[in-house]
Known about the structure:
With 333 residues, this protein is α/β, with parallel strands linked by helices. Helices cover 40% and strands 15% of the residues. It is built from 13 helices and ten strands. The chain has helices at 4-7, 34-40, 59-72, 85-97, 112-120, 132-146, 156-162, 164-173, 188-200, 217-220, 242-252, 261-275, 285-296, and strands at residues 30-32, 45-49, 77-81, 100-106, 124-128, 149-150, 179-183, 206-212, 255-259, 303-307. The strands form two sheets. A six-stranded mixed β-sheet has the order 1-2-10-7-8-9, sandwiched between helices. Strand 7, helix 9 (188-200) and strand 8 form a beta-alpha-beta unit. The longest helix is centred in the middle third of the chain and has 15 residues, at 132-146. It is globular and about 55 Å long.
Amino acid sequence: MIPLIERYRERLPVTEKTPIVTLGEGATPLVRAPRLEKALGLGPLHLKCEGANPTGSFKDRGMTLAVSKALEEGAKGVLCASTGNTAASAAAYAARAGLRCVVFLPKGAVALGKLAQALVYGAEVREVRGNFDQALARALARARESGFTVVNSLNPLRLEGQKTAAFEIVEALGRAPDYQFMPVGNAGNITAYWKGYCELGPSRPRMMGFQAAGAAPLVLGRTVENPRTVATAIRIGNPVSREGALRAKDESGGAIGSVTDREILSAYRMLARQEGIFCEPASAAGLAGLVKLRRRGPLRGTIVCILTGHGLKDPSIPLKFGYKIKRRSVSAS
């Protein structure tokens, strides 16, 4: 597979001297969703399955570039704060590059699959009493002391890498969709997609971002001091890329709304049962928003929903539905 940086080299801030740190990221499937189209009464609906990236989330798109440039610039290591996916991705790409990686995680608030990844890739894990925003403050303070490169989405290289997902959607469809629905947490991804669409030309979607109701600072217009949601990947009360997200909404004629945990989990289950796609809860926030808006009236045109991470990132969630496993004793004879 051609590395993402090589595929889009002309559109990325790299030179011939940039060492490419890659795990084969990008080129993720854009899957048509005919059963959801029928159930919701929609036109063409596609699902961008970013859980097919090497560490199971969209973070790898930005991490390949951020870690490649950190290596080029002689960084001693990389560090980040994370609700889980950034930590997993940073740890994997740092291991690939031969760099140290330190991650700051909110204590007791990171899904098991993501924590397991950070540990097995060799990251030095620091648990912080508090939420993501407090973990980020600790990470930034450590970066100033250590000379490590911060690879959170406040690093502009992360967004440069993540914008390539918009390129792939346009390549697959032949044009930009009419609507793009997606989850919003730290708000870097919606910012990056909009940047990608704007670089490609006048064909641009209406950007429809959705936060969890218990962690919806962009909807409320203020910081949420104690964000709460089952969708841990977007459990963020003070988004770093707030301005970029609002700009994407305003310039595209889109919207940023909120959905409840019940709505998120309903969409999460719908994706699995209707289309055979297993995503983590936060990934389903965009579809939950689509379902919510569809109830209010028709939506015409081509729609893309961004599914940001794989369901195995948070393997405990299906157990909350109370599924029963049927067991039968089988004779050995």
